[in-house]
Amino acid sequence: MSDSHSNKNRFGLDADTHIPKDVPLAKTPGHKLRTSNTIVDRSALHQAQIKLKDQAVDSKALDKMDDQEFEYVQFEDQVGVIRKSAGEEEEVKAEPVPNMFTGPSYRNQKERFRFDGHKMLHHLDRVMNWMQGERFAPIHIDMGLTKFCNTACLYCYAVVQNMTKGTMIKRDALLRYIEDCGKLGVRSIGFIGDGEPTLNPALYDATVLAKQVGVDTSMATNGLILDMDRAHELLRDMTFIRINLSAGTPEGFRRVHQSTEENFHLLVENIRELIRIKKENNYQCTIGLQMVLIPECFDEVIPEAELGAELGVDYFVIKHCSDSEYKEIGINYENYLSLEDMLHKAESISNDNYVVQVKWNKIMAAGESDLYKDGYRKYDVCYGTPFLLQISGNGKIYPCGPFFNKDRFYIGDLHESSFYDMVMSDRYWEVHDDVANSVDVHKDCAIGCRQDYVNKFLYDLKNAPEHVNFI
Ligand code: SF4
């Protein structure tokens, strides 16, 4: 059917080309870069194809595969072919197949809480303020109410934050600040971080006032000295109460929290009482447990997951231990990588009313995760601090917890100035700009800081890819 032409190509190598004998050839041969000087006349070829189209193709001459059956369909002077599999006619398809549109087959489980991510998409007005270079109030503030504690948990980050027994934000300054938050439009405050919040007696009044001025509140507490006479107010006015508990047994509690086994029993009874009050009064406050995972409590994960189910709390979340930029707590993130099966087993203890969830993104920081690769953040700039601010338990304001006591980033003291004025001041915005412009998040910052998820979102927004309209 074809002539074989042997030629040298431009690299001096042999090149065989196979050209059908009856192909129309061009009069002018091709140039030397081609592998052959024989050039097909394409316009003549096109004419030949038009002629061929006029002749009916014999469909019955087509090859069939072994398991195929053809059905021939006559239309005027042409015969078409429908291909069928052998025995197709008899086959009754019982299984649902795609595109039958028969309604739901599978539904993803609704995410009740988002522990391992952010909720910035619900605050696009503040994001727009930021994009347009305007000044705006934080969406959320984590704040300590004291700088001391009544336990000494092994994993406590506060030990690197200059804890001082007896130091706490004073009642007047705290309540004035809460009012300012209402005026500014701060949406939530977590009494979380630094010392134990229940050691500050103004906690209860601050919670009630925040509700009145339209600011949501929450707290993280060791739960040991809760004023049960005022628990009603907390359960009525707080969005959630999170109990810091990293053990499911009295012995584990003594070991990890450096407390007594009696205190474990006291805490369990306090949680039971909170749940009873909540149910009796139909309060909406969420009650959860949080474990900070360190090697000393690896064996306490399953017992605590079971304890949470038995108590009837809403959730049990398991998180990594944040270490400082100087590794003062001594966390080896590699240790987490071998725990995956056990952590999945803990999650499987969830039920319809109880969520057990692992913060996989941060716990697996040493492996590949959405937020980290080999311990490096997948963003280069910290833009998150004006959206999520952190305030120390002594009333001093810094952009974030890991930067407490770093003078360069000190914004002001709630005992000396109004929070409203501070947020409007040049100093406040200079500090946030300094963080964005000067801090290297890969080496100056604690791994797994509170602003991580928000930072990743904002960084992606600032560094848009090309062709954004092609969503
Ligand atoms: S990235 Fe660094 S500067 Fe920004 S909040 Fe985290 S620790 Fe603070």
From TrEMBL:
Keyword field: Iron, Iron-sulfur, Metal-binding, S-adenosyl-L-methionine
Compositionally biased tracts (Basic and acidic residues): 11-21
S-adenosyl-L-methionine found in the keyword field: yes
All residue ranges annotated as the 4Fe4S-binding SPASM domain in the record: 388-446
Cofactor(s) required for function per UniProt: [4Fe-4S] cluster
All copies of domain Radical SAM core, residue ranges: 145-295
Keyword NAD: no
CDD domains: Radical_SAM (cd01335)
Superkingdom as given in the UniProt entry: Bacteria
A Pfam family hit: SPASM
Residue ranges, annotated region (Disordered): 1-31
PANTHER family: PQQA PEPTIDE CYCLASE (PTHR11228:SF7), RADICAL SAM DOMAIN PROTEIN (PTHR11228)
Record protein name field: Radical SAM domain protein
Organism of provenance: Nitrospina watsonii
